[in-house]
Amino acid sequence: MIISILVAMNEELLIGVNNDLPWKLQDDLEHFKNYSLNKPIIMGRKTFESIGRPLPNRKNIVVSSSMKEQDGIKVFNNLNNAIAFSKKYNKENDIDEIILIGGAKVFAEGLKQTTKLVISWVDANSIKGDVYFPEFNKQEWREVDSKKFLKSEKNQYDFEIKEYLRK
Q1: 14 neighbors 132 (Cβ within 8 angstroms)
Q2: Phi and psi at residue 136, to the nearest 5°
Q3: Which pLDDT does position 126 carry in this prediction?
Q4: pTM
Q5: Residues 164, 119: contact at Cβ < 8 Å?
Q6: CA 32 to CA 29: how far, in whole Å?
Q7: pLDDT tens for each residue of 60-75
Q8: Taking the domains of the chain in order of start, what are their residue ranges?
Q9: Is 58 within 8 Å of 38 (Cβ atoms)?
Q10: What's the pLDDT tens digit per position in 90-116?
Q11: Which fold has domain 2-166?
Q12: DSSP state of 125
């Protein structure tokens, strides 16, 4: 079973500002949608609130001690329970990947269990924010794929999507 992290960040590991993404990258949002379709996605409460609704055609799972379940959302009080549920769900539905989509706390807790990183490296290092991806050792990961996107009407900054597998 693959446990992935799907995230956009800059070289300073910035991932958020004021409960939102720090940039507008339409091609990255399309990649996020296509990559996560039909898979379970696990997120923290703040990430869910920033999205504002369950994402269609995915199993939406929220890690929160205060949030109640609602239509389209499964809620667990810790990440381990959310992952255990996702593994069972995947086995029943012949799915081979669980995706952690944020925020910082979910990433920090889940990084040890993660076997794949899908990172959109955004060329936007002057931006200030308030949420950061946890420090991680890049030597533990092997790059297996990459695709570059240039700044355009659809993308506020240049960025590159890279996939890594744990060595």
Answers
A1: yes
A2: -145, 155
A3: 87
A4: 0.96
A5: yes
A6: 5
A7: 999 999 999 899 999 9
A8: 2-166
A9: yes
A10: 999 999 999 999 999 999 999 999 999
A11: Dihydrofolate Reductase, subunit A (3.40.430)
A12: T
